Amino acid sequence: MIEILIGFIGASLWLYILLGGIDYGAGILELLPAGALREPRKQVINQAMGPVWEANHMWLILIVVILFMGFPGIFTTLMISLHLPMLALLLGIVIRGAAFTFRHYDAIQAPTSQRVYTLLFGASSLWTAFWLGIIAASLNRGTIDLETRSAWEAYILPWCGLYPVAVGLFIICIFVFLAAVYLIGETEDAALRQHFTRHAMLLNWCVVFSGGGVFLASLAERQSLASAFVRNPATLGVMVLASSLFAALWRFIRAGRIRLTRAVASGQVTLILLGWVLLYAPNAVLTRQKPLSFYDTASPPATLWQLVLALVIGSLFIFPSLIYLFRVFKMKP
Fold first, then answer.
1. What is the mean pLDDT of the chain?
2. What does the domain layout of the chain look like in residue ranges?
3. Are 168 and 134 in contact (CB under 8 A)?
4. Helix %, strand %, coil % for the chain, to 5?
5. What mean pLDDT comes out for the span 127-156?
6. What pLDDT does residue 331 have?
């Protein structure tokens, strides 16, 4: 049962990084200069995101629900120790959703209000992606203290540091890279395609350099990523494979092979996520006292059975509905 729930968490996280990450990246892209292409770029992003952007938050909600019901020890630890980053994340999600909704469905479409909505949408996308990275980095630093009575050690120290900031910047680069790659195939305009292509190639380099920054920043942590990778051959192999896709990605981008480009870019991000999971599995959170694994913090078997049953039944409705949603709004006429 626990393995099934871990599978649901992993699948939800993967889908949220890929699908939700594209949406966040599209918002961040709007902060970058585009000259005469600014308005056409905005229209492309509106058309690409409009029908499906709300559905992507379902994966994040699913992760929260599974942790709350199936692994309350992990849920409680995260919600207490990372309370401030979680609050910042939720604030960004709310502002971002409101800004995109008003911009997309505003009946008046006044230039001034549109500029405000666009700025809020882009800034909140950047803000939210950054805090996602902060939270991800804080899970396995070993700085969460389950026994402290100090406010600083309880609520600030677990997420404060150069390493979480580096991971936040890394996540931003990944999201904008995914968005640029995806948007290449969302327009027939040659100038816009070239615009997104240039950003995709540049941001692929940004992912590489920001990833290197994560490794450098980890040297100040209790355990550096480099030493952890060396001790884990599987993780090291996954990272080598992700790096080997670099040349293929550039080749497909230059050849205009949109589907292959998307597949390779998604593959790179999937391998990065897999490497991170393999590095710390089966532990979900590292604290100063002990690691918290899914097996040690699981709810009683009766609760797990009911949760698994609900997820399986729900999947029979959710996945066909999502596939139908994408087919209706994303199929070319």
1. 87
2. 2-330
3. yes
4. 80, 5, 20
5. 89
6. 61
**Concatenated DSSP letters of 185-232:** TT---HHHHHHHHHHHHHHHHHHHHHHHHHHHHGGGSSS-HHHHHHT-
Residue 6's alpha-carbon distances to 162, 246, 271, 284, 285, in angstroms, are 30, 30, 18, 10, 14
Query: How many degrees, rounded to 5, is the angle at CA 117 between CA 328 and CA 266?
Result: 45
Angle made by CA atoms 289, 148, 284, in degrees to the nearest 5: 40
Question: Could you read off the pLDDT of 94-139 as tens digits, one per residue?
Answer: 999 888 888 877 767 677 888 888 899 999 999 999 999 999 999 9
Instruction: Identify the pLDDT of residue 129.
Output: 95
Sign of dihedral through CA atoms 314, 60, 296, 78? negative
Position 226 pLDDT exceeds 80: no
Characterize 188-211 residue by residue with b for buried, 16 or more Cβ atoms within 10 angstroms of its Cβ, and e for exposed.
eeeebbebbbebbbebbebbeebb
State the DSSP H helix or E strand holding residue 286, giving kind and residue range, or none if neither: strand 283-286
**Closest alpha carbon to 181 in 171, 195, 167:** 195
> Can you give the length of the chain in residues?
333
Cα separation values, 59 from 67, 168, 223, Å: 13, 20, 30
Tell me the two tokens of residue 306.
């009911």
pLDDT, position 107: 61
Which two three-digit tokens encode residue 292? 């918290």
CA–CA dist 316, 294 (Å, integer) = 25
Taking a C-beta distance cutoff of 8 angstroms, is the pair 25, 175 a contact? yes
Summarised one tens digit per residue, pLDDT across range 1-52 is 889 999 999 999 999 998 888 889 999 998 988 888 888 888 888 887 766 6
List, in sequence order, every residue forming a beta bridge with 293; answer none if it has no partner: 283
